[in-house]
Specification:
Two copies of one chain form a homodimer.
Chain A: H1 3-18, H2 25-32, H3 36-42, H4 46-70, H5 74-91, H6 93-101, H7 110-135, H8 143-163, H9 170-187, H10 195-202, H11 211-224, H12 229-242, H13 248-259, H14 265-274
Helix pairs in contact in A: 1-2, 1-6, 4-5, 4-7, 5-6, 5-8, 5-9, 6-8, 7-8, 8-9, 11-12, 11-14, 12-13, 13-14
The first copy, chain A, binds a DNA duplex through helix 3.
DNA sequence: TATAATAATGACTAATCGGTCAATTGTCAA
DNA sequence: TTGACAATTGACCGATTAGTCATTATTATA
């Protein structure tokens, strides 16, 4: 096992017990049996560690569920969705606990909040497409409510599973939720969440960012980074913000250059919205 | 406004935005326009502040809902339960946000965790008694699941209300949840949470309150309060506890007098249960 | 075996935290 | 105006944090 994996594994145990903020780097390295310096050979910061953990598990979680859902017949679909999710949560209960504890609102790192929000929306999207496939046009008015009900029930029962120390019958649990969601899908008539509401919620998510703020962030990022294509792209973007002279296609390309760099995700996101791409 | 109230008010704003742990005492005192020392004249510690906030709002919340539920006809009961809760959350949105952020698992103070757990169980208990009253013997197998569904749906929709900056139609929301819960109560057959399961998780809830405890609380409240009908009522209630001599109807009326005073919600709740009203 | 390259260490720094307390300011009766 | 008392202040304390880096240990190579 690589040192990076060791740290991620041991840190996850502590995060699940105590939470992210409450766990110190020293505790993590003690628990791994390594020195503090060794930690910083694997991760640039404590934030990068939680980033890695969230990315590692969330991509797995989402792709797992997505695959199962895409390869299951409709008559078993809802059950598979619940059962797979609960099983995955049960299997990676430490990560699931971290996920429950550190809801989007508790982190202080803006990039991290954005990341959690992004994954949350991805899960919502997958759930919505499942609901649409299952019930079609019948639930066109209530489909968003149905998604929220699934989310609410799953969240609450997951909490029960994770934090009560009683072993649960996940098949029975999944069956009982299938019954409930089917009931709601077939008989509920009052729609609370409309498409307009969903759209009006998405809007304020990206708050207008100013030229000055972007310049400040770019300057800071450029200082931080080592020589690379990404750094060169940042420098060119900064110059363009100071004195617009580049073709829009070139600007888009420069943003694309930095989009996948782990430390540039947020700034590229802001740049994209600033230039209305 | 007393200094204590000022601090509680201003601190709550910061806690709602940043969370409890992430807000420093210095930030609170800056936001109040007082010195750090002055903070510690009003509160023994930062923990005592969050204790006060949680007690102040939770006692109000629980006794409010409990009273409404006890004094509403069955045909309006579920709607009233939802609507009152959402309205209270909306009215005290800063506290509701703190409540959502600092779920039982995030605090580090053991007493605080226990307190949150205790209030959580009180809410569950109130919800359960409502469910039993509404659906009687029909849902004897599924009543605990029903309570958990109510909790899950309410929690998820509350999150929507608090953290999306879109004004919501709380009446429509409550109606839609009434429809959903009625559907589940009438048609759901698969029980997942059994009485045994609940018992295996159970810990002592609200202990029976003693005459002495009530007297102590009354004495303290009487000292705190300014001259008013409410204070006079408290004094009479104290005398009645020391030497029972009043007609039960009078006692009920005296409790009614204090029920809506923000500082007497909890004591009135305890008195009501002490006298079996 | 000798040497260069790499990995790992832990004492250290600067910042921030909750909490304290000697010193200062404000109040009011004499 | 004075002086006793209460209220208020903010510099300061010890503890803890994330993160650094000169030093040491280990490994690979010649």
């Amino acid at each position: 096992m690589s040192k990076k994996q060791l740290i991620m594994e041991k840190a996850l145990e502590l995060f699940a017990k105590q939470g992210f903020e409450a766990t110190s780097v020293q505790q993590i390295t003690d628990h791994c049996g390594i020195s503090k310096g060794a930690f910083y050979l694997s991760f640039k910061s404590k934030d990068e560690l939680i980033f890695s953990l969230i990315d590692y598990f969330m991509t797995q979680l989402i792709s797992d569920i997505d695959y199962k859902v895409k390869n299951t017949q409709n008559n078993e679909l809802l059950f598979t969705y619940f059962y797979t999710t609960f099983q995955t949560f049960s299997q990676h209960s430490d990560f699931a606990k971290v996920l429950m504890k550190e809801q989007a609102q508790t982190f202080h790192n803006q990039e991290l909040i954005e990341k959690m929000y992004m994954y949350d929306r991805l899960v919502d999207k997958a759930t919505l497409s499942m609901v649409e496939r299952l019930y079609g046009e019948e639930i066109i008015n209530t489909k968003y409510d149905l998604v929220y009900c699934i989310k609410g029930l799953m969240g609450n029962y997951s909490k029960l599973m994770l934090f009560s120390n009683v072993p649960l019958d996940l098949k029975l649990l999944s069956e009982s939720l299938v019954e409930k969601i089917n009931l709601l899908a077939e008989h509920a008539t009052i729609a609370f969440i409309s498409e307009d509401f969903i759209r009006s919620m998405e809007q304020p998510a990206l708050k207008e960012v100013t030229n000055e703020q972007l310049l400040e962030m770019l300057t800071q990022k450029i200082e931080e980074m080592e020589e690379s294509i990404e750094k060169e792209s940042l420098i060119l973007l900064k110059q363009h913000l100071l004195d617009p002279s580049l073709n829009l296609a070139i600007v888009k390309g420069l943003i694309e250059n930095i989009r996948n760099h782990p430390h540039c995700k947020w700034i590229s996101y802001l740049l994209l919205s600033y230039f209305n791409f």
